[in-house]
Amino acid sequence: MAETDKKRTLTTRFIWLIIGIFFVIMIVSQLVIHFYNPIKTEVASLYTTTQTVGFKGVYVRNEKLVSYNVSGVISYLHPDGSRIAKNSVIAEVYSSQNDLAIQQEIESLMAQRSVLVDAQELVGADTSQLESFSTQIYDKHAQIMQYLYDEDFDSAASLKSDMLNLYSKKEIVKGAEVSYADKILEIDNRISMLRGQISRDPFEISIGETGYFVSQVDGYEDVLNSDTLFTLTKEQVEYIVASEEQETNPTGVIGKLIDDYKWYMIAVLDTVRLGTVFEVATVTLRVGSSQQNVQADIISLERQEDGSSLCIFECDMFSSDFVDGRVAQVKLLMEDYEGIRIPTEAIRFDDEQNAGVYTLNGIEVVFKQIKQIISEEDYTLVVDTSDLDGYISLYDTIIVEGKDLYDGKIIDN
Question: Dihedrals φ, ψ of 377, to 5°?
Fold first, then answer.
């Protein structure tokens, strides 16, 4: 008997447990239904964009190889793309890597010395400049952080000396440092010691001509120039674009000299995407990762049998950004457009196959038509039809995601 009562009690508890779980599920379900927003919306906003045609272009310039005939470790004295005067020294050749490392340390110490000497001149100055120094330090710091955010580490590093200069001057003016004379003397002694460790003076390499120097060559210097420009074929251009660029200079070659700031670019483009672009037109190019816009003239435009066009651009704006490689990623800026920006995924079609979007007017779903301008993968630009009934208006609430949508549906959260 006791055994039976025990089983009956366990059964009753199990039933109540099942009922409890059921009620919990019911409550959670009602909460989800009540608070779940079944749609995702976005406000229709005004937007301006530029239609572009992307392509890979091949630089064509008049270039001359620069040779040298001494062995050792090369140290370049100018950044690529620097304009070099006649008979200027472009590089030094050290007998060993150790000699070069010592020289680099000396140059670093010389830069520190220059900063301290500059700050030393403010010994005894009044404190009226403190606020100015603080403001300049803040601005430099903000600039460095922006460079780091943009991953422009070279530019960030270039401000190191400026920051040290400002900090040193501030410390002198506010009296935290009485004098830098001892530190300057310490640096001088260190420099003297290091100079005595260099095995021999470096060999200097100079150029007897003017031009723009680039330390890297690619093997096309004698092939691509103004004389061969108009003889290049579509197949040759495509081969150069597809080829891997040479990573090391040949033995005895230290770099190349570009003779002029004018350069050419040849590329194969889609004729359809070029639209109304024509020969002798002046266009805007956005070249490489620098996102710098330049004006260029189309001096040749040859239609090809396969629907492409062989296009030659001429530009007289020179920048060091344009010498980093033979092939560059370029955008041809075609035309500016302004309109309402809507997510491409929000576009729907009504029963009459009119393109449009579902909008939310209070709690009611309203279908509104659109007039497309251009369409990209993520968004579509449409005409601002705020003054037309039944069409999208600025600041409408667009339904980007939602289930079982139709015109007139009531969305009850």
Answer: -65, -40
Helix, strand, coil share of the chain (percent; to 5)? 35, 35, 35
Q: Where are the beta strands (DSSP E) in 194-291?
A: 203-207, 211-214, 253-258, 263-270, 282-287
* Overall pTM surpassing 0.85 (yes/no): no
Q: How far apart are CA 329 and CA 53, in angstroms?
A: 11
Spell out where 215-290 has E strands: 253-258, 263-270, 282-287
Beta bridge partners of 332: 53, 285
Q: How far is CA 292 from CA 89, 210, 287, in A?
A: 30, 26, 6
Query: ∠ at Cα 141 (139, 145), nearest 5°?
Result: 115
Handedness of CA 362, 367, 369, 370 (dihedral sign): positive
* 7 φ/ψ angles, rounded to the nearest 5 degrees: -65, -40
Of 82, 172, 93, nearest to 127 (Cα)?
172
156 by Cβ neighbours in 10 Å (0-12 / 13-18 / 19+) ranks as middle
* pLDDT, tens only, 69-80: 888 899 999 999
Decide if pLDDT at 239 tops 90. Answer: yes
Whole-angstrom distance, CA of residue 331 vs CA of residue 333: 6
pLDDT at 386 over 80: yes
Distance CA(215)–CA(324), nearest Å, equals 10
- Cβ contact 55:273 at 8 Å: no
